[in-house]
Amino acid sequence: MTEPLTIVLAAPRGFCAGVDRAIQIVEQALEKWGSPVYVRHEIVHNRHVVDSLRAKGAVFVEELDECPVDRPVVFSAHGVPKSVPADAARRNMIYVDATCPLVSKVHLEAERYHKQGRHVVLIGHEGHPEVIGTMGQLPEGAMSLVEDEAQAAVFEPPVPGMPLAFATQTTLSVDDTARIVEILKRRFPDVAAPNKEDICYATTNRQDAVKAIAPQVDAFVVIGSSNSSNSKRLVEVAKAAGCADARLISGPADIDANWLRGVSRLGISAGASAPEVLVEQVVSACRALRPVNVEEVAVAREDIRFKLPRELAS
């Protein structure tokens, strides 16, 4: 008889309030204005979500100049540089900003620091849309990007002695970021810090749940897209917490019978942009191979909801 597989589900997992809001914005924009509604960049980093919205009439583009001026455009949850809404306004376009409110909080912090005469150090990953959007809130040269401990150890202000402040991308590894911040604070004792941590509650909760499960399972899968920062961080957290065999999968098609053969306990989580239906499908794919018992480990309860933009208020 095939040995049963125990699946340990991490909670919280999957959609966060910012992702849920962003998807609602596109759906309600389609309801209000009809299709097509244009979306600059993927609304969130998940192929399943993007394909679902595309089927409803959303058209995804990379740049604003790909959008006709007579159709509405939605800006993604990751945020955009200030130049993007300014360009949309100049072209008299209808636009709705789906930037997560917790990303907007980082934007406002950066502006406040800049007005105080501080140079802003942004901890984040080069090329990520959130980082591009945050750096685009300030004039060029007013913010420097630091990606890791090595860069933090050699960073120097563009003007010697210039007062500093730091901000962070919202989807980073909590532990990695803490080490980078420690280096900056040691080197620049007067560096200004956010009043409240920039890494969002959803990222922190999902990482804490993975940490609680990783030491007690043989393998771990995180459901999410390869371009999802928070999903990739969950894989790293699982490995660091004691589960060497952790991997990122996009959905049930990635469940490998050969890989599962030596696994008796499997941890499962999902990135903040991955819908719960994918979790259900992955569990079903495991059931097709072996008898399955399901447990859940919950470390927090999330009940945060964000209001929709006034453009869509009924």
Q: Can you count the beta strands?
A: 12
Structural class, from secondary structure content?
Answer: alpha/beta
Overall, the morphology is: flat
Q: Compute the average pLDDT.
A: 95
Specify the number of helices: 11
Numbering strands along the chain, what is their spatial order in the largest sheet? 10-9-11-1-12
CATH class of the largest domain: Alpha Beta
Q: What fraction of the residues are assigned to beta strands by DSSP?
A: 15-25%
Describe the largest sheet: 5 strands, parallel
Count of discrete structural domains: 3
**Can you write the helix and strand succession as a string?**
EHEHEEHEHEHEHEHHEHEHEHE
What's the CATH architecture of the largest domain? 3-Layer(aba) Sandwich
Poorly predicted regions: none
Distance separating the two termini: 57 Å
Computed Rg: 21 Å
CATH topology of the largest domain: Cobalt-precorrin-4 Transmethylase, domain 1
Helix content: 25-40%
CATH superfamily of the largest domain: 4-hydroxy-3-methylbut-2-enyl diphosphate reductase, catalytic domain
